[in-house]
Amino acid sequence: MGNARWLTPRPEAGYSEASGQASYLPVTGQATAGTPLATGVSDEKECYSGAIRTEARRALPERVNRGRKNDNHATGGAADEVGDVNLAREIKVTVARSDSESRTSFMVERRDPMMVLDLLLAIQRQDDPSIGFRYSCRVAMCGTCTVRIDGRTVLACQTPVPIDTDEVRLDPIAGLPVVRDLIVDTAPFWQEWASVTPYLVPVEGLSEPAVIKPDSPERQTIDPALNCIGCGACYSSCGIAGSRRDFIGPAALNRAMVLIADSRDAFGAERLQAVTGTDGVDRCHYIYGCTADCPKGLDPAGAIRQLRQWRINGTP
C-alpha cells in the first residue's frame, strides 16, 4: 500500500448509470472509468462515486432531487430545472471593495446547497486571493462573518444563497468603519457594549449559590434574551445606531436588560440609569430591524421596551 495513489471522485469526470462506475481524477494525471481508488486494490474492493453521490443527493432538499432531469449533471445547458425554479449554474457576485482599483464582479459556479460564505471562499480561491472578509467557526457561534447580502444583514456561514437568483451583492455591515472590503472595525460596537457594564456584579453576602427556578418570572424574562453572539447584525440593521454615534445600540441594551433582570446582580439600579440616559432607550425609534435580522432569534426591541417599563415602574 506504500505506492498507492489516492484518487479523488469528481462529478465532472462522468458517471455511467448502466455500469455503476465513475471516472476519477487522480492527484496527477487522469484515470479512466473503473479505475480503482488506489493501486493494488482488488476489483471487489473498488469504490466508485455512485454511492458517494447518492449519499450527497440524499442531503439535498427533496425538491432539488425531484427536479433533476438526469444523473449526469450535464453542463451543456446554462441552467438545471429544479421543480418550478430555474437554477442558474453560475451566480454573479458583486462585492463592495475598499480599493477602487480592485475587481468587484465575479462569476461563481453554483453548488447545492451553497452558503454566502461559500461564495466568498470560492472567489478568494479561484479569482482574487486579496479579497478581505472574516469568518471563523462556520456554525453561527463566533459572530465574525456578518455581512450584508442585497442590503440585509446576515451571518455568511448560515445564510443560503437564494435558489431562485442568479445575482447577489455583498457589502460590509452598516454603521461601522470599513477596514478593508467586507472587514469592519468593531471597536465602536464593543465600546457601547462596555458602557452598560456587561458582566454580572454579584450581590454581597451570599453564603450559598443562588437558585433561579426554570418556571420563575425572572427566568422567563431572561432566557429569550440570552445567547447573543456579538455579531453586530442588530447594530447594522438599526438606522439610529448606524447613522450617529449617540445611541448605545440594540445589543448592549439587550445585555443590560438581561443583567438587570437577574436577582444575583447588584448593579441593576446603576445600569438602568446608564441605559436610560440621552443615548439610551429613548433613542430607539422601534424600526425593528434589530429583531428582524438577529441570526439567533433574539428580540432586542422587546428588551428595550422592558427597560422603558422598568424606568417608569422601577427595577424588577
Structural commentary:
The protein is built from 11 helices and 13 strands. The protein has 316 residues and is an alpha+beta fold. It folds into 3 domains: 53 residues, no CATH class; 99 residues, Ubiquitin-like (UB roll) (Roll), CATH 3.10.20.30; 128 residues, Orthogonal Bundle (Fumarate Reductase Iron-sulfur Protein, Chain B, domain 2). Strand 12 and strand 13 form a beta hairpin. Helix 8 packs antiparallel against helix 9 and helix 8 crosses helix 11. The termini are far apart. 28% of the residues are buried. The N terminus is likely disordered.
Cα Rg: 26 Å
Structural class: alpha+beta
* Helix and strand sequence: EEEEHHEEEEHEEEEEHHHHHHHH
For the report, how would you describe the main beta sheet?
5 strands, mixed
List the domain count as a whole number: 3
The average pLDDT score comes to 79
Class of the largest domain, according to the CATH hierarchy? Mainly Alpha
Beta percentage is 5-15%
Strand order of the largest sheet: 8-7-11-9-10
- The CATH homologous superfamily of the largest domain is termed Alpha-helical ferredoxin
Q: Could you tell me the number of beta strands?
A: 13
Question: Overall 3D geometry?
Answer: elongated
